[in-house]
Design brief:
2 copies of one chain form a homodimer. Chain A is of the alpha/beta class and 201 residues long. Chain A has 2 domains: 137 residues, P-loop containing nucleotide triphosphate hydrolases (Rossmann fold, 3-Layer(aba) Sandwich), CATH 3.40.50; 59 residues, Guanylate Kinase phosphate binding domain. Chain A contains 8 helices and 9 strands. Chain A has a 5-stranded parallel β-sheet, sandwiched between helices. The longest helix of chain A has 15 residues. Chain A is globular, with a radius of gyration of 18 Å. The interface between A and B is medium-sized, with 33 and 33 residues. Chains A, B: Its EC number is 2.7.4.8. Chains A, B: It catalyses: GMP + ATP = GDP + ADP. Chains A, B: It holds the Pfam family Guanylate_kin. Chains A, B: Keywords: ATP-binding, Cytoplasm, Kinase, Nucleotide-binding, Transferase.
Chain lengths: 201, 201
């Protein structure tokens, strides 16, 4: 049955390893990662339409006005946002789109796309999260403390998600997500036209 | 994470092959098939507590009165029903229970167990269902016609189910159900105590 791809929204606290999981998933051709639009200047090696859709501030604000963005935010005087068009084209082609969004953006995305599948990536324990953040050795204690507090808050949002994937082991976490995708493709609402056609013959 | 098993309700029209699927599933030790209670006499080889729970009419009516049955019906002056106790013991042990119930019983079961997972087994096409029913060669045309009409009605109930599994190929259908089970074990509501404990440390 050829049908629309799924919209997968992945969130998880810093240190949950969601970036690595996404990199693993998109090795399979049915997964496409959402491309953000931004007004910041391209860095060396970054390509338009691959890493970002690079926009002028005027273009970006026009996208906002036309409601062409699923969600957007402004960091350090640059806009970042998720264009709906790319998501819609991807799912129409039958591929599954992955949106890596933080908790608040995920809630916005869910209200725009009620059929999106929300997956929360978790560290196995809070201590593990702590040691992963410290392990990077790149952040000050204050930054780590702030991130842990934020992680604690974000973890409380788990109830708003459809699924929890505990990232104890990368391979298992990737398998979990693939199984969620397989199961979600068997949801009854996706079979409406198939069954109606079957019965009309 | 040790937690309760799932309650899987499998329905599907006669000829959908759900019986064969159940036989395949219970080869895995995490699946247990629900055992019915009945007042009919045991046939040769049938064991109490394995094929059925054999009850006197008085015992059965006491189970009805005490609301110990998930659903029950009377065929040819014999009661048949699904005891809740066996279901509850099974899921408490962490195993997943399979209930093979027809559409109407499945709706009753869903209202008793809102967290039950409803899976509808479908033939790949209506023609295939027809040829499977005729292929048995054991039924008259009238019986086949009546079953097809009933199948048509039952198929319309697909919307009430969580998932659709098309039984085109036995192995694929069994894999689909296993993937549904794996995904359902990742549902966020199942992680409530896990996450609360994680954050309380």
């Amino acid at each position: 049955m050829q049908s629309e791809g799924l919209k997968l929204i992945l969130s998880g606290p810093s240190g949950s390893g969601k970036g690595t999981i996404v990199k693993e998933l998109i090795k399979e051709e049915n997964f496409v990662v959402s491309i953000s639009a931004t007004t910041r200047k391209p860095r060396v090696g970054e390509e338009h339409g691959k890493h970002y859709f690079f926009k002028t501030t005027e273009e970006f604000e026009e996208m906002i006005a036309k409601e062409e963005l699923l969600e957007y935010a402004n960091f350090c005087n640059n806009y970042y946002g998720t264009p709906k068009a790319f998501i819609n084209e991807t799912i129409k082609s039958g591929k599954d789109i992955i949106l890596e969004i933080e908790v608040q953006g995920a809630m916005q995305a869910k209200s725009a796309y009620p059929d999106a599948i929300l997956i929360f990536i978790m560290p196995p324990t809070f201590e593990e999260l702590q040691s992963r953040l410290i392990g990077r050795g790149t952040e000050s204690n204050d930054v780590i403390e702030a991130r842990l507090n934020r992680a604690r808050e974000e973890l409380l949002a788990f109830k708003e998600y459809d699924y929890i994937v505990i990232n104890d082991n990368l391979e298992d976490a990737v398998t979990d997500i693939k199984q969620i995708v397989q199961a979600e493709k068997l949801r009854s609402y996706r079979y409406k036209s198939y069954i109606e056609q079957m019965l009309s013959n």
